[in-house]
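Lecture 7 notes: from sequence to structure.

We start with a single chain of 369 residues. Read the sequence below before looking at the structure.
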Amino acid sequence: MARSSETSQDWRARTRNMPAAVRAVLFPTTGQTVASVVLIALAGYGALAFLDWALVRAVFSGSDGSACRVPDAGACWPFITHKMHLFLYGRYPETELWRVHLTYGLALAGIVPLFMPRVPRKPLLLVYLLAVFPLLAFVLLYGGPFGLAEVETDLWGGLLLTLVIASFGIAASFPLGILLALGRRSELPIVRWTSTAYIELVRGIPLVTVLFMASVMLPLFLPPDVSIDKLLRALVGVALFSAAYLAEVIRGGLQAIPRGQYEAADALALGTWQKMGFIVLPQAIRLVIPGIVNSFISLFKDTSLVLIIGLFDLIGIVEQSVQADAKWASPQTAATGYFFAGAVFWLFCFAMSRASASLETTLQNRTSS
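Now the structure, written as tokens:
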């Protein structure tokens, strides 16, 4: 009760002093006052312009683009509602969508408890997310076993394909990035040179080149009767590319660990893998959580590049719908579609950022206590 009373009093004190605090932050000097006024005016103008386009002048009903071709029309929201199934699932059969929804449920079953402080056995959840879930997701989405009808990857698209590429890339690049980071710090010259060469080579070329090589060049080196699924080639390329960047982030965390931690592990007669697995790596990963999540966010946004090899993720489906469907042609169709795609990407990236901040706070409180 005492702590609650103190918290309430602090809140009321801060509320009473809010105008003074705002003045101290935004208008302490003449120069900062001018800058604050200009920035507030620009933000207000942008917000009003957006609301005018998205709500005031927007079109909310219609069966084709003619409803959005009226003079001075704003956002064309019927385009989004009529194309929602395509944006979310691509051409995945509607009768099999329960498999997609079940896959999403299995993913949430592993992700949500991971960020709940009181849930025990977090390492088992990581094993589930990094090893078990990808296999379950592939079986559910592609089909084959258990009498599930096969759904070719050419039918996958939209947000579904974006999440498949991002989740596989994260699940595969994280352990590979750890191995590359450890390899670059290895005392064995051949392991260190190989890891360094791989990291520097991959970081020196753009992801577009990796995807192009995986989709176009790789089949040229395979026997004529051997064919690798286009999506699988893209998944491997994205994972290998992301692992190189993730390895440098993790290596930074390893270098930040004090030498005394290594010496303490040696004093306990721990082996190399025990020392890394129980002492060094947990501390290193905790230090670089922001960098790791930043790499994951970058990977999530880079999934849009698979459009160049004929895979239609969310951005690709939106672009294809805007350019190929003359029925919905209007001056506002493209802007509305790209705004929708950008909003979806922002929501996922913001959720990842907030989850990272929550995890940092939880680990910090656990360490301090």
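Residues 333-368 form the longest helix (36 residues). Keep this in mind for problem set 3.
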